[in-house]
Amino acid sequence: MVHLTVDIGGKPGVNCRGFCTYCYFKHAKDVPPFGCRYCLPFKKGCDYCTRGVKEGYEGFLPLKEVAENFLADLQATSDDVTRITISGGGDPSCYPEFTDLMEILGSLDVPLHIGYTSGKGFDSEDTAEFLLKNHLTEISFTVFASDPALRRKYMNDPTPEASLAVLKRLAEKIDVYAAIVILPGVNDGAVLENTLTWLEEAKVCGVILMRFANERAQGLILDNAPVMEGQKTHTVEEFREIVRTAHKNHPKLRISGTPLYDPLFDSPFAIRRHPELLKKLPEITGKTPVITGSAAAPFIAEILQKKGAKAGAVVPVKKEIACLMTIDDLQDLDKTSLTDTVIIPGRAFVHAREAAEVFGRQVVRGPEMLTADGETSMGMTEEAVLSLEFEGFSALINLINQYGT
Fold first, then answer.
1. Nearest to 24 by CA among 147, 142, 175
2. Any idea what DSSP says for residue 347?
3. Mean pLDDT over the full length of the chain
4. pLDDT tens profile 177-191
5. Which CATH superfamily is domain 2-258 in?
6. What distance separates the 2 farthest-apart alpha carbons in the chain?
């Protein structure tokens, strides 16, 4: 079984009929390379941390180039293609040659998946029938609100009624996953309740609630804070409660949230509630500080302490999300109490050599993932989530023991 991706290119905010007011890429600057796990040991900066994180395409790729790239991928595989995903920096619904692309891919009689769309390019309800005819079987659709006026104002959707009608029609026939970025005082509270009720009645498969970020500490690393001047944000704890309440009030919907949390599995870090798995993790015999984000730090500390770690084994930075940590976050830490080796998140946007210079110590990258956030876990089983966490924490503890004093 082979899953192929069709990359249409495109630039956020440019190839999507304009920025949504809350878009992460709004005000994004051309910042220097961060450094990351893909960089060469002697060079800070690679394609991923220089261009990829900024989704720095020049614009949509011509259909001819998209088709040629896809054909090359298709010819390179000898197995049956079981799914094709359309993705890119721009919004597929706004791709100028979207109709032609769908007809080309639809002719292959392979299930199609649109990885993300705002729906702002769907100007007619008839679009739904066209998509179904060409074998679309799954779509992730940003909703914001079921109120067309709010979509028009905050998403810059010129035809919100048509966009919502397409979503509703698709949900009757295929797997539709809705995404809602939550703006306090705008689409939370009663508005969110009405939107979730509308989605429930439309029979969408699941809803991912996404906390709006407006500060550097919340993850705005492209010198783009604030995205919305004066707009309030929820704390991690407040947002967790919103997700918990939504899950309780709408049992027919598969609801999860990012950065916290997934009520179905009590994740991220669901393993802390499974003593039989914790018992199987290696015991901690060394002492090596684990640097992480402030949102994950309490959970990681709880799990490691159950395996023998002492207080202070986990050191949080001000940045909430560990994989969005940059060198600035490390520079702000008190380094006097750290041991000879420190462990940083595997996916942090930090070059290992530069981190070693900041700490004056050996720096080791931790596992790629210790858990799955709500955006990832929505498509996983509980067994898969726990397996990911068990493997991640086993690897982390082994690193602590290997490098610890």
1. 142
2. T
3. 94
4. 999 999 999 999 999
5. Aldolase class I (3.20.20.70)
6. 66
Judged by phi (left if over 0) then psi (alpha if -120 to 50, else beta), residue 201 lies in alpha
How many CB atoms sit inside 10 A of residue 226's CB?
Answer: 16
Given a cut of 80, whether residue 157 has pLDDT beyond it is yes
Least confident of 166-170, 186-190, 400-404: 400-404
Name 11's bridge partners. Answer: none
* Top-level class of domain 270-403: alpha beta
Render pLDDT for 9-63 as a digit per residue (tens, 0 to 9): 998 888 999 999 999 898 888 899 999 999 999 999 998 998 878 776 778 999 9
3-state secondary structure (DSSP) of residue 20: coil
Residues 120 and 33: beta-carbon distance below 8 Å: no
33 touches 327 (CB < 8 A): no
Instruction: Please report, as a single letter, which amino acid is at residue 356.
Output: A
- pLDDT surpasses 90 at 267: yes
Fill in the DSSP letter of residue 43: -
Contact by Cβ (8 Å): 161, 124: no
Given a contact cutoff of 8 angstroms between Cβ atoms, the answer to whether 208 and 180 are in contact is yes
pLDDT over 80 (residue 115): yes
Domain with CATH 3.20.20.70 in the chain: 2-258
Q: Which residues contact 180 (CB under 8 A, 6 or more apart)?
A: 142, 143, 144, 145, 187, 192, 195, 207, 208, 209, 210
Omega into 111 within 30° of 0, i.e. cis?
Answer: no
Q: Where in the chain is the domain with CATH 3.40.50?
A: 270-403
